[in-house]
């Protein structure tokens, strides 16, 4: 904008003095502090007041300084003081020097505030501006401060967390369709991103792992992999209890423009919300999508109320779905989406042998072209249960490809090969699972390519790398849960051997104890009842 242009402020035209210049910048949400309340998502954090200091950099002369701040509107009351900034940044404070700093006008607007200042000095000197904001209660955004933690093997910066938290608010605040209710809620980071305790594994593979993670304070917890959420699963990207006294959810890193959806979806579970399948664009729909931003009135109220003061069961993949989720006719469309808590069994199992042939074409002939969805492809193949898929899946697990998505899919194949064996009775599949669950030397050999690639990835990202032993143990654990899901007496016997064996490694033995319970359920009640029982949080004796 030139110095002589006119700025339209509502119905009033204000001429900017010829001697002033304009700057526009963004508020740094992580530095904004509520005037009242502690760093917990309590009702007093409804956003009636904020304080904030902005570093406008070195300036002199007259300036129109435009601060973009989504929480502000024309009815906001904004009080501003300016001064010369001390060396060391905004936290070092301001001081009174020889230059005079003057605020002439303060004008709140929709999405920000503009001020006219004058720095009477001949050269550029630091300008800090302090903002005190009071919003009318009926237009305020409720603010939820969220602690963010990450595993030492997962890269996640403060800036990454701020972007994702900002996206959470943007998803809820919009009302871009008749079915969508604008929800005045925003999420801000409570302190720097922290490291999770050292006892939390990079891959969450058992119920004990998940409980340890959720008991490690409150907030968002980011790990390398999640393979247990209400039960074992190979394609899980987020997990949270339905009802939680505080913000408490687990997730993995994901596509940048969809991480905010995963976090806000799991926060919805914390607030007591189940999955919803009557609107493909619903935030609480069980899969992710860039257009999943719709909340209805009841969901909006739950998001605003925040986490429930009770703790419920984990939202497993097939819960609340059943026949309500009608899978697309083309199985390739079904697997070309990410299901937050994993592929829903009751939907995937509706496909048949011809659909399995289509997926095998992708898996065997075009794996690199469909690498992003390999975990979904192999899981659906296993839920279909055609014996045609057994040898191709064994070959897939044994191949030397070592990318992150490929390794994730290999775990999915091992876990859910148990489902395939359960349906087909394949002896080859059962023997393969027993072999890998009981021989960690073989799983370490299979993990060598991934360990090499993971070490290089970690060096570039500046995070810790998993050891070969860790990766080998993870494969053995996945095979152990595959045995449990097979429902076969030989599998149950192998699991008992792992529990009793003096040479069984600790992670595998711990998994075997949980797998034994699943194996008993499978043998006594069958596959369909097992997946139905997950939805109800039901445990059999």
UniProtKB/TrEMBL annotation:
SUPFAM superfamilies the record matches: Metalloproteases ('zincins'), catalytic domain (SSF55486)
Superkingdom of this protein's organism: Bacteria
Protein name: Peptidase M60 domain-containing protein
């Amino acid at each position: 904008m030139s110095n002589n242009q006119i700025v339209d402020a509502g119905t009033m035209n204000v001429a900017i003095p010829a001697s002033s210049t304009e700057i526009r910048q963004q508020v740094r949400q992580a530095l904004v502090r509520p005037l009242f309340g502690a760093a917990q998502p309590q009702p007093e954090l409804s956003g009636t007041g904020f304080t904030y200091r902005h570093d406008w950099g070195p300036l002199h002369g007259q300036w129109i300084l435009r601060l973009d701040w989504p929480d502000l509107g024309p009815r906001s009351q904004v009080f501003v003081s300016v001064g010369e900034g001390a060396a060391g940044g905004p936290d070092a404070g301001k001081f009174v020097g020889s230059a005079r700093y003057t605020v002439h006008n303060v004008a709140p607007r929709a999405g920000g505030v503009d001020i006219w200042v004058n720095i009477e000095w001949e050269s550029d000197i630091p300008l800090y501006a302090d903002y005190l904001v009071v919003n009318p209660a009926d237009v305020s955004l409720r603010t939820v401060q969220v602690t963010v933690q990450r595993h030492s093997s997962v890269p996640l910066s403060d800036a990454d967390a701020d972007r994702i938290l900002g996206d959470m608010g943007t998803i809820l605040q919009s009302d871009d369709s008749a079915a969508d209710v604008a929800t005045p809620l925003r999420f801000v980071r409570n302190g720097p991103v922290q490291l999770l305790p050292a006892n939390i594994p990079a891959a969450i593979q058992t119920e004990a792992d998940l409980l340890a993670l959720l008991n490690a304070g409150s907030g968002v917890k980011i790990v390398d992999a999640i393979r247990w959420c209400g039960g074992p699963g190979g394609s899980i990207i987020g997990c949270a209890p339905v009802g939680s006294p505080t913000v408490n959810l687990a997730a993995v890193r994901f596509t940048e423009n969809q991480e905010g959806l995963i976090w806000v979806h799991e926060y919805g579970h914390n607030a007591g919300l189940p999955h919803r399948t009557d609107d493909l664009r619903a935030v609480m729909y069980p899969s992710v999508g860039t257009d999943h931003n719709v909340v209805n009135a009841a969901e909006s109220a739950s998001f605003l109320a925040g986490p429930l003061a009770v703790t419920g069961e984990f939202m497993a993949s097939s819960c609340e779905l059943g026949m309500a989720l009608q899978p697309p006719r083309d199985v390739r469309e079904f697997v070309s989406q990410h299901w937050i808590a994993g592929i829903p069994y009751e939907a995937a199992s509706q496909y048949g042998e011809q659909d399995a042939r289509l997926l095998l074409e992708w898996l065997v002939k075009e794996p690199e072209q469909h690498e992003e969805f390999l975990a979904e492809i192999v899981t659906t193949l296993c839920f279909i249960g055609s014996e045609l898929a057994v040898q191709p899946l064994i070959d897939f697990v044994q191949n030397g490809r070592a990318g992150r998505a490929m390794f994730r899919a290999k775990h999915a194949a091992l876990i859910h090969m148990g489902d395939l064996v359960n349906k087909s009775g394949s002896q080859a599949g059962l023997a393969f699972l027993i072999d890998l669950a009981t021989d960690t030397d073989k799983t370490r050999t299979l993990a060598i390519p991934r360990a090499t690639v993971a070490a290089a990835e970690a060096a570039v990202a500046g995070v810790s790398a998993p050891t070969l032993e860790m990766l080998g143990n993870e494969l053995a654990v996945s095979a152990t849960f595959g045995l449990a899901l097979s429902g076969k007496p030989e599998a149950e016997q192998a699991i008992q051997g792992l529990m009793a064996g003096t040479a069984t490694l600790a992670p595998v033995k711990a998994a075997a104890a949980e797998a034994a319970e699943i194996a008993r359920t499978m043998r006594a009640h069958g596959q369909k009842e097992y997946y139905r029982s997950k939805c109800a949080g039901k445990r059999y004796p």
